[in-house]
């Protein structure tokens, strides 16, 4: 196993996660299997109880792990599936060591940061690095490790010490350190300054780690004399100084690494240059085409993002990426209009009328409306008003998690005239509880007590838009993160009034997908489809929203149906007899694309080309 460690210096927010992901892309394009680990030095066990304003979105994995958003970058860039153990935190490490001490594993020893905490960190990395992350079910060749925070942070010191020891444990030729640093330009002087990077590298070396490669962030490409100066004072060869300057979109970063021969530098440090399975040049033709296509987009599609965390775009990072994936696939330039849900409410009209007018102008000017997940009652009325506007004006709408529950509440109030309808999350005493607390949830503990991870959703109708978008699948596996659900006792009333529950869980009691059949595109999902969207495999529901918002939905659905004609699901001779779904249709796992999605199972007897 080979290891690439990515650290950061000078300031936070330089893009270590994107850099680590891009290194993985380039190495994977050289023919290597790649896995990733993110180290977060905070004391929290995981990211599940952290506010999006504090740390950005909480990314959810198949196994239910609530992790740092950088693991979302890893999964999207590398098209892999990680586990909760791929996110190491101080809380997890200390909890593991304390549990061992309580069991008596240390045989009466005095438990200390060195060696017990540092050994636990090293053992964790080696154990997790061996876990398969792709369909081959084989261990990776290279593990890319990102150390969160900035060199010099006091909370990361045990990890720095552990990684220094780790470089000696795995030995020369198995460990490569990439240090991401900043080369700023002072407006007054107008020249690129190397001193911040010099000090950062000096601090890193003082802690026992020597950088093999410098990844220098800057607004413009580095001047040659700047590279010479960095090489002289940081003791890094000029070919190993990589410039990551600002680009139009982050998909350019792997191409920057390739063009500057970063893969050659990394492979040389890892002693992989002569390995038979490693290509001399990364095979990035598909990635290059996608980047070029994204840069060429002209026709805009405007999506109003109605939420309560709009002040920090990282709060909805996966949603934005899923919209981008869908927009590029449909040749549309994505324009996101951020609409603070509070600003749509009547109280804002009295207190700050300018914000109120701006919010409604953005909502009414959008081609489609998206209400993402969230918690708490702040801004809920604004989200209800957004759902009502979309429903009444035939504007495409996609509600995710809370966004689906909001649509149900709005429908109950406006269409069914149940004016007191609400969620028990917002009004525990409501007499018309459309959305209720799930029986298996905990009201006393917050961390990891929700319905989390990959769960199966069965389609109840084959002619609904959602099923068609998923390639006429019998069921799909998508990731969840919620404590509340649509009240199953009220479902018959809703369906009688015209709201269709086209997706349910295996019990048939938990509502997963809603649709308004008479609407152009009005869909809500209890799960989070954004977590499994990939640049080359857009989420079907996001494809549906963008297609409906740009006048392409009918063509998309028709293309999906016609392209599948004539392909026998059972394959060629010798195939096993296929299973039948709950509707009696033949089905078979696709292990490939369903409108670019990989987690569906076909039940209509044909597979798309």
From TrEMBL:
Domain Glutamine amidotransferase: 313-546
InterPro entries found in the cross-reference section: Class_I_gatase-like (IPR029062), CTP_synthase (IPR004468), CTP_synthase_N (IPR017456), GATASE (IPR017926), GATase1_CTP_Synthase (IPR033828), P-loop_NTPase (IPR027417)
EC number: 6.3.4.2
Keywords per UniProt: ATP-binding, Glutamine amidotransferase, Ligase, Nucleotide-binding, Pyrimidine biosynthesis
Domain of life: Eukaryota
Domain CTP synthase N-terminal stretches: 2-272
Catalysed reactions listed for this entry: UTP + L-glutamine + ATP + H2O = CTP + L-glutamate + ADP + phosphate + 2 H(+)
Pfam families: CTP_synth_N, GATase
PROSITE patterns (alphabetical): GATASE_TYPE_1
Involved pathway(s): Pyrimidine metabolism; CTP biosynthesis via de novo pathway; CTP from UDP: step 2/2
GO molecular function: ATP binding; CTP synthase activity; identical protein binding
Entry's Gene Ontology BP terms: 'de novo' CTP biosynthetic process; CTP biosynthetic process; pyrimidine nucleobase biosynthetic process
Top EC class for this record: ligase
Main function: Catalyzes the ATP-dependent amination of UTP to CTP with either L-glutamine or ammonia as the source of nitrogen.
Family: Belongs to the CTP synthase family.
Name listed for the protein in its UniProt record: CTP synthase
């Amino acid at each position: 196993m080979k290891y690439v460690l990515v650290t950061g210096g000078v300031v936070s927010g330089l893009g270590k996660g994107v850099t680590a992901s891009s290194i993985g892309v380039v190495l994977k394009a050289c023919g290597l299997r790649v896995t990733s680990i993110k180290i977060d030095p905070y004391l929290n066990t995981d990211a599940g109880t952290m506010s999006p304003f504090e740390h950005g979105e909480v990314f959810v994995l198949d196994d239910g792990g609530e992790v740092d958003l950088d693991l979302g970058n890893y999964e999207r860039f590398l098209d892999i599936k990680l586990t909760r153990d791929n996110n190491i935190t101080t809380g997890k490490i200390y909890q593991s060591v304390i549990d061992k001490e309580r069991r008596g594993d240390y045989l009466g020893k005095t438990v200390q940061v060195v060696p017990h905490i540092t050994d636990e960190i090293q053992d964790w990395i080696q154990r997790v690095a061996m876990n398969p992350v792709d369909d081959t079910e084989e261990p990776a060749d290279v593990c890319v490790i990102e150390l969160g925070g900035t060199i010099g942070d006091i909370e990361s010191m045990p990890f720095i010490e552990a990684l220094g020891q780790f470089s000696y444990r795995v030995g020369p030729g198995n460990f490569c350190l990439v240090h991401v640093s900043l080369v700023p330009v002072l407006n007054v002087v107008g020249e690129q300054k190397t001193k911040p990077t010099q000090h950062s590298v000096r601090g890193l070396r003082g802690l026992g780690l020597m950088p093999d490669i410098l990844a220098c962030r800057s607004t413009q490409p580095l001047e040659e004399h700047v590279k010479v100066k960095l090489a002289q004072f940081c003791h890094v060869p000029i070919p190993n100084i990589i410039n990551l300057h600002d680009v139009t979109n982050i998909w350019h970063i792997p191409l920057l690494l390739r063009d500057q021969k970063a893969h050659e530098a990394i492979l040389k440090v890892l002693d992989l240059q002569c390995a038979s399975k490693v290509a001399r040049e990364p095979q990035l033709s598909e990635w290059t085409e996608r980047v070029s296509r994204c840069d060429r987009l002209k026709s805009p599609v405007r999506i109003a993002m109605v939420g309560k965390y709009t002040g920090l775009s990282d709060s909805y990072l996966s949603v934005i990426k899923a919209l981008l994936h869908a927009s590029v696939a449909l040749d549309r330039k994505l324009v996101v209009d951020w609409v603070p849900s509070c600003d749509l409410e009547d109280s804002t009209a009295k207190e700050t009328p300018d914000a109120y007018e701006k919010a409604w102008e953005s909502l009414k000017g959008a081609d489609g409306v998206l209400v993402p997940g969230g918690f708490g009652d702040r801004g809920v009325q604004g989200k209800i008003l957004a759902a009502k506007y979309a429903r009444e004006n035939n504007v495409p709408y996609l509600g995710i998690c809370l966004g689906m529950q909001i649509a149900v509440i709005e429908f109950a109030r406006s269409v069914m005239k149940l004016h007191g309808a609400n969620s028990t999350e917002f009004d525990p005493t409501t007499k018309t509880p459309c959305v209720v607390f799930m029986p298996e949830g905990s009201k006393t503990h917050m961390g990891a007590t929700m319905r989390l991870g990959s769960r199966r959703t069965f389609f109840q109708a084959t002619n609904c838009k959602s099923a068609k978008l998923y390639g006429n699948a019998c069921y799909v596996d998508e990731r969840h993160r919620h404590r509340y659900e649509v009240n199953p006792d009220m479902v018959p009333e809703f369906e009688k009034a015209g709201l269709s529950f086209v997706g349910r869980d295996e019990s048939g009691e938990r509502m997963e997908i809603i649709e308004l059949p008479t609407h152009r595109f009005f869909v809500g999902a209890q799960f989070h489809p954004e977590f499994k969207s990939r640049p080359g495999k857009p989420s079907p529901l996001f494809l549906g929203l963008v297609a409906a918002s740009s006048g392409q939905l009918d063509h998309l659905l028709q293309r999906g149906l016609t392209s599948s004609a004539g392909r026998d699901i059972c394959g060629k001779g010798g195939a096993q007899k296929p299973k039948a779904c709950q509707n009696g249709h033949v089905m078979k796992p696709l292990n490939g694309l369903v409108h670019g999605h990989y987690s569906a199972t076909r039940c209509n007897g044909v597979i798309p080309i």
